[in-house]
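Thread: Newbie trying to understand structure tokens

Hi all, I'm a second-year student working on a class project, and my supervisor (Dr. K.) asked me to get a predicted structure for one chain before our next meeting. I've only ever worked with sequences, so writing a 3D structure as a token string is new to me. If someone could post the tokens and maybe explain what I'm looking at, I'd be very grateful. Here's the chain:
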Amino acid sequence: MKSLRSRDTVMSRRSAISLGIGVSAAASLGLSARPARAARKIRLTTNFFAEPSMGGMYQALATGLYAARGLDVEIRQGGPQINGLQLLTGGETDFVVSSAMGAYSAYDNGAPILVVAASFQSDPQCLVARPTVRSLVDLRGHKILVSTQGRASYWVWLEKRFGFTEDQAFPYTGNIQPFVTDPTIALGGLISSEPYRIKSAGVDVKSFLLADEGYPPYGSPILAMRAFVDQNKETVATFVKATMAGWKSFLDNPAPGLSIIQSVNQKADDGWVRYSVDTIRRLGLVTGGEAKTRGIGTMNDERWKTLADFMIDAGLLKSGRPTKDLYTLDFANAADIIP
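---
Reply by user tm_fold:
Sure, no problem. This is what the structure looks like when written as tokens:
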């Protein structure tokens, strides 16, 4: 798993300097410039490879929003075969970008985790199919490529909501070629990514945003261990506020964050990142809903209850643990980063 501190990202650090990110960003990237006092080191693991759907975090790194608040943040890339929740509970990372359903499942199984903010007001998860597919119901019985994290989150919802079956799901490793060569299969991805990549490969597609179909979760929630939050409340509040400020900055001018994303992820070409940012803006994934008035990252009890009720009804939550104990509104709702 690559991070901004690995040997594989030496060129990304050099690129960051040459692209004029600035002294504060150089400090946050672990270069020669350092904060005047020792910064609190934070390890953040994303839910996929570096891309604009994590733009707020990379923007906060690039523009020095973390460093200016005394945080030395290391962003580690996730991937389709990486289980971020396992890394979190195993003490290998301090924060992880995950999924709401995956978080509830882990919590129900006894993991002492806590959601501290929501990156997106609507989940960007989608299914991509050929234009001849009229609805998600038409995909029953079809082979569908699904990532490891997707199997623990939206796939479970699709099974209960549309009658999909376990034998339909096959591993998605980020490689779109099986979809390109086989017109009978579908693929699970992000609305800000996979549709563009597949169209760029010469295949026309139809995208189904699961949020439009009733998929209830917040998108890309940020989690930490409850003990870490209890012992580091000021650090957590600072991290959340800086990350949400990063999202506001990214949507205003994404260039600094994109410079890091593109240097870390060699597949992040100019056309794709423009499409991705435009999609995030157009759909209001970060700034829509309550975020318009209550601030980026905000959450509420009703949305979490809707998800919990679905999972209980589907038999996915069984322990009887209080579902409100999975998340806290103390940090994101107090950040007050109004778009």
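A couple of things are worth pointing out once you decode it. The radius of gyration is 19 Å. Strands lie at 40-45, 71-76, 95-97, 113-120, 125-129, 144-146, 169-171, 186-190, 206-209, 219-225. Feel free to ask follow-ups in this thread.
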